[in-house]
Amino acid sequence: MEILISLLVCLLLFSTIKPGVAAQNDGVLKEVKVGLVVDLGSTEGKILETSLSLALSDFYRINNKYQTRVSVLARDSQGDSLLAYAAVTNLIKNAKVEAIIGAQSLQEAKLLATVTEKAKLPVISLLAPVSLSLNKYDHFIQTTHDPTSEAKGITSLIHDLNKTSVVVIYEDDDDWRESLQTLMEHFQDERISIERTASLSSSGEDHMMNQLRKVTKVSRTAVFVVHMSENLVSRLLQCAEKLGLMEQDHVWILTARAMHHFYFLERFETRSMKGVIGFRSYVPVSSETMNFTSRVSKRYSVWAHDVACILATSVEKLSLKKSENVSPNLLEIMRQSSYKGMRQSNIQMVGNKFLSRTFEIVDMVGTRERRIGLWSCDRFCERASSPNDIKIIPRHRFLEENDDHKKVLRVLVPARNKVPNLVSMRLDPETGVYTATGFCMEVFKTCIAPFNYQLEFIPYNGNYNNLAYLLSTQSDKYDAAVGDITITSNRSLYVDFTLPFTDIGIGILTVKKRSQGMWTFFDPFDRSLWLASGAFFVLTGVVVWLVERPVNPEFQGSWGQQLCMMLWFGFSTIVFAHREKLEKMSSRFLVIVWLFVVLILTSSYSANLTSTKTISRIQLNHQAVFASTTLQNMRLGSIDEVETYAQALRDGTLSHIINEIPYLSLLLGYYPDAFVMTDRETSTNGFGFMFQRGSGLATNVSREIAKLRSLGTLKDMEKRWFQKLDSLNVRSKAGDVASLNDVDEAYNRFSFGELRGLFIIAGVAHALVITLHLVHMRQEILTKLQSFY
């Protein structure tokens, strides 16, 4: 029986301990290593490494409950295919990586694909060109644009230009030749004649000029399709301009790969680029995209972000299946799953490729780009503003420079806003035209000025969420919306936002505590308590002197000396500095009681003085205010009238205001001496301008906002609009706040009534000692009289 009981106890202990151990093991994060093999000295390599690191950091900050963590091991190939091959081999054998990201060229892609095919390890390439020769490798994955969709888009554009023949100019390199095959085949299928092809290498300018002269002999009116790297594109267009091939009758189209590489070129001859059309992968503008690309400025970083998220999600899904072998199963998970990315909401692998099928069609206007359309699969999603713009694309550069042909931009402006410093609309009764002013409008007008638009302001009286929906559904009536419009995720579903032009986040505004100057040390006690304390210090000295004088030589002497002794002894107890020896038990008792009272008084004084000087910093538990659950339930509304909120703070109706930074900045501008912002949190995205989905103006205006911010122009505008103190009587209002501070400080002081219990104890002790002393003196007098008689 005892043996059975022992066994049962052991089983119970084992069943109790085992789940705990399992839970502990489950809490361990599993690291999955991924190799990155690129030329870290190249611009592409640097951007790829940085983008992957930032993307994984952002991903795991959001998905912090995931049990796996992808870590990237970077190796420098130095642009050498053999070094890349050696690095991948080393990563597979020694570092035990589960996947490889790399391959910047076609030769490098074939070498890496051969190695990883044997190791059954997926290799993901963001930089290698699309080639039919790579299709035989099952473990080679490409993230790129869809060459078939691009070929259809270029063909459709050429048809819209009423052209039937093209001249194809490409770079004399295996990478560029193989990636051009799909486009060439599609031209033949669509009966577009390829009148001439020209292959150019990194030769001199004379050779390039000669090749272009040969091309022009075939046709004086031609469409040139260019497929080469950024350096050659820049040189080619400069040579074409010298030969007069950038004139009205010539159309230049850059392929998506050429535009992608051209994007990495920091300096180019803007004059020679004017009027050139380019295809490139479309990246929708969203708050997430803007947040990421603001840290990694190149467009290509978005592809790296999507690859990082795909890998991290796939690894986590694999861990949930408790699979021990990651590499063989990782590719299968990636094929079966769909992912949400920045480029598109639903990313799926098709034939070992993550393809981007939507293209943005842009042309160069001066030093900037202008979107003229979007191409998706088999149709244009968005055409140029005018039905004839596609047909006269090369000519539009002349219209842009002519003020008589300004395009009208129809802008919706919230008319119910009651803060004129932000947005204000006024109707001119004579012309019937609305004019708009305010900080938001000045920023918008400054950003839109380089694009030569005529602005038409249209008042809007609804709420801001409906404003986004209206702009999305009535694209034939409205082009943009401008005002104190906060960038939110639900509005981004309908429109494209620009970068925020205000400080992001919310803050806490409260009344500023007024400084008391050099007499601030009197604040802890009110007048009655100071007077009572001083009186008792003097009384203590008098009573002790009265009791000790007959028997203690230290309390004797001239009347002047005795008066000084009384005052000295009483006030020295403040710091316990009295050194006189007391002879009477009654005086000792009195001093003990009084020192207890002094201890309470000094402690209360120190505590109150400390709290009054730090109370403004600890009035709010900011972590509680800014907790995520609080923010999710909190409804942030616009400040309609500055004076209403200021008055609520002054009269104590509101102790603090929690709202977006621009509104609080406006209040601080009007009342710099009355209010203070105690804390802030980047929980909102600030104000932005809204444009139609896919509008190129969102990107262009974002660039202008970034430029204004870097030059400090935005700060200057804020000072002009947020600090107009003459429009309100700030002096008198600040006085009201000061008087309110006085009331608060008076309320926080200790009064005699609050500590009267201490003084009652001290008074009783003093009265008792005096009574005992008088009884003792009476006894002595009676004794002397009896002895006398």
UniProtKB/TrEMBL annotation:
Signal peptide residue numbers: 1-23
Entry annotated with the keyword Cell cycle: no
SUPFAM superfamilies noted in UniProt: Periplasmic binding protein-like I, Periplasmic binding protein-like II
Main location: membrane
Domain of life: Eukaryota
One GO term of the biological process aspect: monoatomic ion transmembrane transport
Membrane-spanning ranges: 529-547, 559-577, 589-607, 757-775
One GO CC annotation: membrane
Bilayer topology: Multi-pass membrane protein
Keyword terms of this UniProt record: Glycoprotein, Ion channel, Ion transport, Ligand-gated ion channel, Membrane, Receptor, Signal, Transmembrane, Transmembrane helix, Transport
Location relative to the cell: Membrane
Domain called Ionotropic glutamate receptor C-terminal: residue spans: 410-724
InterPro entries with a match to the protein in the record: ANF_lig-bd_rcpt, Glu/Gly-bd, Ionotropic_Glu_rcpt, Iontro_rcpt_C, Iontropic_Glu_rcpt_pln, Peripla_BP_I
Known role: Glutamate-gated receptor that probably acts as non-selective cation channel.
PANTHER family linked: IONOTROPIC GLUTAMATE RECEPTOR
Similarity annotation: Belongs to the glutamate-gated ion channel (TC 1.A.10.1) family.
Name recorded for this polypeptide: Glutamate receptor
Lineage: Eukaryota, Viridiplantae, Streptophyta, Embryophyta, Tracheophyta
